[in-house]
What we know:
By secondary structure, the protein is an alpha/beta fold. The protein has 25 helices and 29 strands.
Amino acid sequence: MNKKTGPHITSNHWGPSVINVDGEQLSVTPHPDDPNPSRINENIPGALKGQSRIRHPAVRESYLKNGPLANQGERGEEKFVEVSWEMALDLIASELNRVREDHGNQSIFAGSYGWSSAGRFHHAQSQLKRFMNSIGGFVRSEGNYSYNAALILMPYIVGNFRDHVKQATRWNTVKDEGELVIMFGGIPLRNTQVSGGGIAKHTLKDDMKACVDAGVRFVNFSPLKNDAATELKAQWLAPRPGSDTALMMGMAHTLLVENLYDQNFINNYTVGFKQVSDYLLGKSDGVIKDASWAEKQSGIPQEEIVKLSREMASKRTLLCTAVGLQRAEHGEQPLWMTVLLASMLGQIGLPGSGFGIGYGADASIGVVDRPMRWPSFSQGKNAVEDFIPVAMISEMLLSPGTRYEYNGQTRTFPNIKMIWWAGGNPFHHHQDLNRLRKAFQQPQTIIVNEISWTATARHADIVLPVASTIERTDIGAGTQDNSIIPMPQIIPTQFEARTEFEIFTALEKKLGLNTDFSRKMTSEQWLEEMWDSLKTEAKKHERDLPSLQEFLKGDIISFDDPSPKNVFLADFRKDPNQSPLTTPSGKIELFSETIASFQYEDCPGHPTWLPPREWLGADTSHFSLHMISGQPATRLHSQLDEGSYSKSMKIQGREPILMHPDDAQERGIKDGDVVIVFNNRGQCLAGAKITHDICKNTVFLWTGAWYDPNLKNESHQDRHGNPNVLTHDYRTSRLSQGPAAQSALVEIKKHIGELPIIEAFTPPIS
Ligand SMILES: Nc1nc2c(c(=O)[nH]1)N[C@H]1C(S)=C(S)[C@@H](COP(=O)(O)OP(=O)(O)OC[C@H]3O[C@@H](n4cnc5c(=O)[nH]c(N)nc54)[C@H](O)[C@@H]3O)O[C@H]1N2
Ligand SMILES: Nc1nc2c(c(=O)[nH]1)N[C@H]1C(S)=C(S)[C@@H](COP(=O)(O)OP(=O)(O)OC[C@H]3O[C@@H](n4cnc5c(=O)[nH]c(N)nc54)[C@H](O)[C@@H]3O)O[C@H]1N2
Ligand SMILES: [Mo]
């Protein structure tokens, strides 16, 4: 591959861009057709060419010296030795053989959760899983960190959540027919830069602005004012974090006692209203969940709750609940309450109203859909049946053989001897990183494929350098977008990096396997085959696609949006008997017999107020601030943290933490100070950003600063600002066993003295 001078289109999860190559220099400009392009693009050159790039295969020192079974030293602490590809692949081949012979494929964890990169062919997890499946399978993970409570709960009460996200009511129907939008957790525009697999045009901001121009009123219940874009002119109300369930109960109680609810809708489309209304009225537990009770839990004045409930009942109202709210202890409850409230308002299935979960989690939700399934790289069949709910990684590694409950089942943790991760960063995404560090000492071998020296790579034994999107040829297409985006190889593979396909094809040869993985095809042949299937599909939509080569040299190709005026659950509303839901009763389940039969106190059969262990309503004498850790504006998760846009918002190199002026003043902290954020689980440094845009007693430290523990210091202080050293590793509930990062209490003090150097970007090479 020769260096190609000039501009080239490419795609990322945060949208298309134009990469300009000038000798060794890379620069990025937005795609001219994207009305609201993402600045995350600016991270590409600095990060992919930066010092944190993995240059050669590398092996941890004492692993190289002693092998997998002898004294292993401490993962995450030790340096690495660079080795040849030949040697790295030999080590992996013999270790795969040993572990499979001694312990079987059910001792290999290759769940490998993570976002990896855009591109239909070079999808890291698909490549790894197809390879593992070709040698007998692996223990996988189920669900995600994004909305696990929704994935498990919603099928019982309304239906498949992933389908529903695709079917979200479109914003143009809100513009045409809506009057009021109530957002719990807002719709932060910073999060809607991103869409899985990419998105050709970011139109959400304009779509929502059109609603405002048409007279729709927005209300933002959130600890952060800017969870609603300024253009929305939203009323801002800040409930105590973690109290939305109670707040919504106060609203539901008001609708109930003021007889403002739609009895007809309840009768025809739902089951279980009696159990919930008894609960709201306090008949089942003696606690009346009225607006004054809701004020005590949430801090929102009861008059406001009552006024808003009346307004909701009198207008075309859409309820939007951010999935961030369910990434918390009892995360099922705000979801179930959203469904109850919307059922009582009785506007589900009508244009511009009803409810939607996760509008702010992705640029495409309520905006666009794909016209057809895009081609993908088949993962094959996994012969190992065992799996874990994705967030149970630490439990699995620390307590093999232990039993646990999940979604009505009792399961047993496998005994994992080997981990292989490609395309994810658990030392970014998992909670309680000090615990994860301990868990990561347990396996005999850990292999990580990575582009950069992330904390996960540093906690591995064998690290393989991987090519980035602009160093390989691919076809870009967002899972919920109507466009395909060319992804030609733009620069040569950097240093000794290889694509995942090259890695696994080489291993296939080395292990002398039959060719189930590669089918004896080159990556070019695979891409041609995928393109051919896309061409055939496109023909069915009366579209003629050019050759793959033409496409790669050309521009984005867009198809018609299949459902521009979609209304969520419209068919069900038209005829609940003809188009029943997929729930056990075919109706909306406000009480679920099935969930009740599991007898989980942490997730009973109807929406229930179960305060989290850590929130401002609990004992705050030691740690008096509620920390929210949402998504970063300047990156996708931890990706490309070395890039210029990501660095531009850091304060003295540390990630910013938002604090209310009163909280800062009480602690003698000024804007721009470096602070220590701490609790019993850990501590990190962060840069104070003082603002009235966050409510009192709450701080916001977004995720994704590369974990940089100072292991010489007893506290293992993270020097960079990673909130997951502070978050707890409790689960949402036994039902969904999801991550519950948002319910964490912390304390903050000013950092005094010399600032430690950040080492996160310095390669750990001896
Ligand atoms: N406290 C807290 N924690 C959270 C959240 C929160 O709200 N609060 N949010 C959670 C959510 S919703 C999510 S989805 C997770 C996200 O967690 P992850 O998806 O694990 O985060 P990423 O940083 O995207 O990790 C992707 C990694 O893959 C690498 N990569 C990219 N392309 C390739 C490739 O082609 N091959 C290989 N081998 N590697 C590649 C990148 O360099 C990067 O290190 O985080 C979760 N963690
Ligand atoms: N730029 C960028 N965008 C992203 C991502 C990224 O890494 N970077 N990640 C993507 C991914 S994988 C996902 S899953 C989505 C996640 O999308 P979300 O889950 O919607 O995002 P969060 O930022 O976790 O949460 C949204 C907001 O909820 C508010 N919130 C938190 N707790 C509470 C509460 O108890 N009550 C109320 N009312 N509000 C609360 C916070 O202020 C936060 O800003 O974002 C996607 N978008
Ligand atoms: Mo996510």
